[in-house]
């Protein structure tokens, strides 16, 4: 724990891997806001805007508009938002292309910290991003974020302490996803209860929890 807390401020170039738009906000939105506040350069890569899953009352590309707004709320620069166009639920058929994309980002961004889904995530697209993310960034520090509706189990091996303003920013960012408001985990009460639960685990009011896949201290 102390090593994670000590080393987090060293991580100045951060890459968030979101299989679908909004996964990064759910998994580490408060941490993104905090790290940007503390001076880190955060890049956000979303691999699908899930056009096949958008409710019929919304434009098919609504999630592209929403992810731009949501990441802006978190403080991510527009030029640091990277959008790919893989069809939802087909990532496993495109493993090599996704790995190639990840390796290009490794070369161009040279991040020193990666946030990605957990290796135990049961969603097929999330599992692909986690597996290929580990392959691409095995020489970098990697933290996996939790998405409880997809995690049969999750090891809370590190935590990021959040203040009220970070939780508020996460909630405001996710409120930009009007097309996803029907999801039970989009509810503010749920988001705050998760942050509160993780905070209690480390003796603070709010936190986000992560599983340490690999941690490198300079």
CATH class: Alpha Beta
Question: What is the chain-wise order of helices and strands?
Answer: HEHEHEHEHEEHHE
Please indicate the percent range of residues in DSSP E strands (runs of 2 or more): 15-25%
Count of beta strands: 7
Per CATH, the architecture is 3-Layer(aba) Sandwich
Helix content: 40-55%
The total of helices stands at: 7
Shape: globular
Q: What would you say this structure looks like, in words?
A:
The protein has helices at 2-8, 23-37, 62-74, 95-109, 124-136, 164-175, 188-201, and strands at 13-18, 41-46, 81-83, 113-117, 141-145, 158-162, 206-214. 41% of the residues lie in helices and 18% in strands. It has 7 helices and 7 strands, in the order αβαβαβαβαββααβ. It is globular. The protein is α/β, with parallel strands linked by helices. Strands 3-2-1-4-5-7-6 form a 7-stranded mixed sheet, with helices on both faces. The protein has one domain: LmbE-like (Rossmann fold). The longest helix has 15 residues, at 23-37. Helix 3 links the parallel strand 2 and strand 3 (81-83).
